[in-house]
Design brief:
Radius of gyration: 38 Å
Helix content: 55-70%
Strand order of the largest sheet: 1-2
Structural class: mainly alpha
Number of strands: 2
Length: 1244
């Protein structure tokens, strides 16, 4: 804007006409808000003067606009001008003779400045405002000035208190006397002001303020309103100071409990403040409040019944579980009303205290459930709606904690909280059913929320008592009140969860009544209600026909056409929300897939409509899923009528960029080809193969696996497509087989492709041709073999070749073995390795004992000069032995025993034995229970165990293999192996003890196993070898504990109290384990305990994920974490990760806040550490990665509520993290986290 235009605005601002002034001030605000607006010193002066004058304008509209101008102006003009404006506003606020309107505008103006100020302006502006408001606080006789000064001071300290350490003492001295002021309003404002200041106070200052409050309460003799203010003040201080107030809880908790119990009649506000203070203690300082858990819970449950003005209250509490007899009138609790009754605030505060206790102490959920569950259910009949909502929330929190700890107990353990919940389900449903009849929509919404949580924790909870809830569900679905949409959504969401979790038979008697209400909800105008109702319809299909094609019940048969009509109405309509369209498509697909034979006349129309939806960009993804559902149906649905166009559409989707669409299209095509592949036109089949071939790569192994599976299915259904597969898919498959990323489902499907292709009999895909192509890839001679990665491909090539050869029959096996033996004689190392690996894979799948030359050739390869060849020979020997244990095992065991003096040779032979044990175990896992030929014979087992024990004193690499073999043997022959291992616990050899405890790592697997019952009785004996004098044994015990906690934490849950102290001890840096080696020109320090500490910290990380309640808040755990942050950089990285996990976990936030000031020093040392000038690139890269891991942890800490209240951490952030080169790295870490969270939300 030109200077002339600005001058014109400023002239109009001074006009006598109010409208002119208003318009000019509005124009000024618009100009100031522009990013391009700039001022010179002269204009600065004029603008500040004009805005100051406008703040005094008699028109409230104009002064209000001037306040907005002020908020923008402070960011546009220089610091001296802003301070001049602030000084003028402070004078107006503190001037006793000023008019109320002038003071009010000045107050609003100062608050606007406080909100807008930042950067270099923050400290001088905050210091000026704080100092001048302290002068206003001294005017105790002028109530208005005092109140306004306290309000402004509170806002200033809340935002900038950490910048004013020099004023903290004066502020405390000025505010403390006001806590005893006779005016309640002054006391309340002074409390909030001190609460804003508390996070920034030093420990000594905070202790002085806390002591003042607690001393006054302990002294007694206070007036009721004064006592109320002090109790409130304790709560405010606790919430503001957080964990730092925890050291005062030994005094504060008894005082709050005493104040609550001693409150006179009518002192409900005092009771509320006391309970709120107790809640803040639990939430902000859970560790310090832990000793008072029983007292706090008892007081909360006593107060949750507190209702002195309602005679029915105590009677409610005397009743069992559901809280009241069935004969009571549902609306009786609402008949009483008293506008002056404030007792509901006490009950609400008590409910929140119960909720805080439940969230803070998940390890005590069993005791909490036993004491609180019945009381909370009884209080469902609470007459005040606000209190009832908090009761529901507390009970839902309790249910979630019961679900969270369920994994710690055996499913049939009667002492588990979940078992207790199962016993109480009837009473809970009975109480919930009463609330579903309540007139209040809010109450019913809360009840459905509780029921949904209950179903999530105990899926079959409603199965036996569905009839109790049906009337409430029907009433909610038919509700016509203003809140009907929210109520219907909650009711339908619960119904969907219940239908999904409960057996279909439970809902079949009520299906007709429920269907009518749900059908009506499908027709609702609000799209969220309609979509949720359609999802319920999808679940109703299972109720009507749980197991198609079994006959449909005659009683339920009439519902099928009704259900179709309702869904079809939404499916056929064009003007629908995308969510409704998706729900309608999937609902119709499930309906036709299960009831298509009962709706035979309607199916063609549905298929036509589904084809239309496939061609619509908005609905194509749900339509693709719908096609997959129909194709997977066991009913004959006439899909062949739309097979060609549907296949064409699905094939075209494989070219789209949308990964989810491609994934769903591959799944649907696979189901279609499995059902109707033979009816597919050859050109359509070739098109499918051509598009699928483009997805066979290691860039997305999930899509590659689905594509290969589709090709295998198509080959089985239509062998004529083999030539197309051989021409387009096979080259991609041969390229994929070389990928170092190949694993899992992609490898399994790749193995299935070759025999399926050979089985078609196509000339271009004969077994010999495919085998030759695979072997060429393995040797690095194939068309795709341009990157020299043959060695990486050989394992996958060998597996694919073995599957192909064995599927072709014994003759092909014999011919291939001869070919491989000839390859083994080659001078090419790659050919030798490939031949050995192939022999091992073929031998694993068939008996090669009739080929006498095989064993000798493989044994001879063990003496090769090439380490890679010897490793391949070891694997081959183990694989061949798997084919015929009786023929090969004795020779293998004899060779191992004879190689005792040659550790390298013995290691290779032990690797072969490990292959044997692993293969026998895999075979046993696939075999049916009771199979006689699975595992080793007693004689073989005895010989193997004896040999392994004798090898336990060999070199370390051999001992590791022995431990692995023993662990896997324990899964095959549990009792015998476990007895042998227990016998080695007391061995004099530290090597044997190390092997014995190391075997535990390989015993625990994800799935249930009979070994678990034997292991849980003796596992602690193995893990307590953490006390052993040898560090290698201790490390093996730590690694074993990590494995147990990762796979089956329940096995060791009862022994953690004994194990944790030993584990913590392994995290300590021990000087006796650090030695110095003299290397002549320089000395080198070697830390023998480094690997042990790293393993111990990683074990704690696993423990934190598996059993957080055992670690969160434990001083020893936090000390171990702090030690890890100060340790070597190899230990720091996992410590940073664990710190971030702890801070982000539900119960860990308070624990981290409690130690935050102690964590600043190690974090700062890590971030400020300097590399040597001659550091190599590897050291630079490791240092940069350590900085990134540290900054990620700092980012998590910085996001904690209350972290800004820790003065050392706030200073660390300002001085170190947000200054210099670290700022950009920290912002990059924040961006990385935000991106990851965004991707997670997209996936959800």
């Amino acid at each position: 804007m030109s200077a002339a235009a600005m001058n014109l605005i400023l002239e109009k601002v001074a006009s006598k006409d109010k409208d002119f002034r208003y318009m000019a001030t509005s124009d000024l605000l618009n100009e100031l808000s522009k990013d391009t607006f700039q001022v010179d010193p002269e204009l600065e002066k004029r603008l500040c003067g004009v805005v100051a004058v406008q703040l005094e304008d008699a028109s409230g509209d104009i002064s209000g606009l001037a306040v907005k101008c002020l908020g923008v102006l402070v960011r546009k003009v220089g610091e001296p001008r802003v301070l001049e404006l602030v000084k003028g506003l402070c004078d107006k606020v503190a001037a006793p003779a000023k008019k109320d309107q002038s003071r009010d505008i000045a107050t609003i103006g100062l608050k606007t400045v406080i909100e807008a100020a930042g950067g270099g302006l923050a400290h001088p502006a905050a210091a000026l405002i704080s100092g001048r408001m302290l002068d206003g606080v001294q005017q105790k006789d002028n109530f208005e000035v005092l109140n306004d000064s306290l309000d402004i001071l509170t806002d200033t300290l809340a935002k900038f208190g950490h910048l004013l350490p020099e004023q903290h003492a004066a502020l405390v001295a000025a505010l403390t006397p006001l806590l005893d002021d006779h005016r309640q309003g002054v006391r309340k404002r002074a409390l909030h002001c001190i609460g804003a200041l508390a996070p920034c106070l030093s420990d000594a200052q905070l202790d002085a303020v806390a002591a003042h409050k607690l001393d006054q309460l302990a002294g007694g003799g206070l007036k009721p309103d004064t006592a109320r203010s002090y109790v409130h003040g304790v709560g405010v201080l606790s919430r503001a100071a957080g964990y730092r107030f925890g050291r005062h809880l030994s005094r504060a908790v008894p005082l709050m409990l005493a104040a609550n119990k001693a409150a006179a009649e009518g002192e409900d506000e005092l009771r509320e403040y006391a309970l709120q203070a107790l809640e803040s203690f639990v939430s902000r300082s859970p560790n310090d409040a832990r000793p008072f858990l029983e007292q706090l819970l008892g007081e909360a449950l006593r107060c949750i019944r507190y209702d002195p003005n309602y005679a029915g209250g105590e009677e409610d509490m005397s009743e069992d579980g559901a809280g009241g007899s069935d004969d009571d009138d549902d609306g009786s609790d609402e008949e009483y009303s008293d506008d002056e009754d404030m007792s509901w605030k006490v009950r609400r505060a008590a409910a929140k205290l119960v909720s805080a206790l439940v969230r803070a102490y998940p390890d005590a959920v069993g005791d909490l459930y036993a004491a609180a569950a019945g009381e909370l259910v009884a209080r469902f009949r609470e007459r005040e709606e606000n209190v009832k909502a908090d009761v529901f929330a507390a009970y839902a929190d309790l249910l979630r904690q019961v679900g969270a700890v369920a994994a710690r107990f055996a499913p049939d353990d009667p002492a588990s909280p979940r078992a207790a919940l199962q016993r109480d389900v009837g009473a809970v449903l009975k109480a919930a059913a009463r609330q579903l009849g309540d007139k209040s929509a809010k109450t019913r919404i809360g009840t459905f929320g509780v029921l949904r949580t209950l179903v999530g924790v105990l899926p079959a909870a409603v199965a036996e008592d569905v009839g109790l809830l049906v009337p409430g569900i029907l009433a909610a679905c038919k509700d016509k009140s203003a809140s009907s949409s929210s109520l219907k959504i909650e009711a339908l969401a619960f119904l969907r969860a219940a239908l999904d979790a409960a057996p279909p038979a439970a809902f079949q008697p009520h299906a007709a009544a429920l269907a009518e209400a749900v059908f009506a909800a499908v027709g609702e105008r609000y799209y969220k209600v309609a979509a949720e109702a359609l999802r319920v319809c999808e679940q109703l299909v299972t109720v009507l026909r749980p197991c198609p094609p079994e006959a449909l019940s005659p009683a339920l048969a009439p519902l099928a056409p009704q259900l179709f009509s309702v869904i079809n109405g939404r499916l056929a309509a064009q003007d629908q929300d995308a969510e409704v369209k998706e729900a309608a498509i999937l609902g119709m697909a499930h309906l036709v897939a299960a009831l298509g034979d009962a709706l035979a006349g309607e199916v063609p129309g549905v298929l036509k409509l589904l084809l239309e939806r496939l061609r619509n960009e908005i609905t194509r993804l749900p339509a693709v899923k719908g096609v997959g559902i129909l194709a997977a149906s066991r009913l004959e649905l006439g899909l062949d009528a739309v097979l060609e166009p549907v296949t064409a559409e699905l094939t075209s989707f494989l070219r789209k960029a949308n990964r989810l669409l491609r994934q769903a299209s591959l799944t649907a095509l696979d189901a279609l080809c499995a059902k109707l592949g033979g009816a597919l036109a050859p050109d359509a089949a070739e098109a499918v193969v051509g598009e699928a071939a483009g997805l066979v790569s290691d860039s997305d192994l999930s899509l590659a696996a689905l594509s290969l599976k589709l090709c295998v299915t198509l080959l089985q259904a239509q062998p004529g497509v083999a030539a197309e597969v051989a021409g387009k898919v096979l080259p991609a498959a041969l390229a994929l087989v070389r990928s170092p990323l190949l694993q899992g489902a992609a490898l399994a499907e790749l193995q299935a492709l070759f025999p399926a292709l050979a089985g078609t009999g196509a000339p271009a895909a004969s077994t010999e041709a495919l085998l030759s192509a695979l072997l060429d890839e393995g040797r690095g001679r194939g068309a795709a073999s341009s990157d020299g990665s043959a060695r990486q491909a050989q394992g996958a090539v060998a597996a694919c070749a073995a599957v192909l050869v064995v599927a072709a029959g014994p003759k092909q096996v014999d011919a291939t073995v001869k070919q491989l033996l000839q390859m083994l004689k080659s001078a090419d190392p790659a050919s030798q390795r490939l031949a050995l690996l192939c022999l091992g894979e073929v031998g694993r799948r068939s008996d090669l004992s009739k080929h006498a030359a095989v064993e000798g050739a493989v044994q001879g390869a063990l003496s090769s000069d090439s380490e890679d060849t010897k490793a391949a020979a070891s694997l081959a020997l183990g694989g061949v032995a798997c084919g015929n244990l009786a023929a090969y095992l004795p020779g293998l065991l004899s060779s191992i025993g004879a190689a005792g003096g040659n550790s390298k040779q013995q290691y290779l032979l032990l690797q072969a034995l490990s292959e044997v044990v692993a293969s026998v175990g895999a075979r046993a896992g696939k075999a049916k229970a009771g199979a006689a030929d699975v595992g080793f014979t007693p004689a073989q087992l005895s010989e193997v165990l004896e040999l392994l024990v004798s090898c336990s004193r060999s070199e370390e690499e051999c001992r590791n293999v022995v431990a692995e073999c023993l662990g896997r043997l324990a899964l095959l022959h549990s009792a015998e192996t476990l007895a042998t291992l227990r016998g080695g616990l007391g061995s004099e050899s530290e090597h044997t003890r190390c092997v014995v405890v190391g075997a535990v790592k390989h015993m625990v697997i994800d799935r249930p196993h009979p070994l678990d019952d034997l292991l849980k009785d003796c596992l602690l004996d193995f893990l307590l070898l953490m006390k052993d004098g040898d560090r290698h044994v201790r490390k093996a015990a730590v690694v074993a504990l990590s494995a147990v906690m990762h796979h089956k934490p329940g096995l060791v849950a009862g022994g953690l109290d004994a194990l944790l102290p030993e584990l913590y001890d392994q995290t300590v840096i021990k000087p006796e384990m650090i030695r110095t080696v003299d290397l002549g020109p320089f000395k080198h320090r070697i830390d023998d305990g480094l690997e042990l500490r790293k393993a111990a910290l990683e074990c704690l990380d696993i423990l934190l994920a598996a059993a957080p309640h055992t670690l969160q808040g434990q001083p020893a755990f936090l000390a171990a974490l702090e030690s890890g942050l100060k340790d070597h950089q190899d230990v720091k990285a996992p410590a940073h990760l664990m710190l971030a996990k702890l801070a982000a976990s539900p119960g860990g936030e308070a624990a981290v806040l409690g130690e935050l000031d102690k964590l600043v020093e190690p974090l700062e040392k890590t971030l400020t550490a300097k590399l040597k000038s001659d550091a190599v690139k590897q050291e630079v890269d490791r240092h940069e990665e350590l900085l990134r891991s540290c900054l990620r942890a700092v980012d998590v800490l910085n996001r904690l509520p209350g972290a800004e209240g820790c003065a050392p951490f706030a200073a660390f952030m300002k001085r170190v993290v947000l200054a210099g080169p670290l700022r950009d790295k920290f912002l990059a870490a924040q961006a990385e986290r935000a991106e990851a969270e965004g991707e997670a939300m997209d996936l959800a």
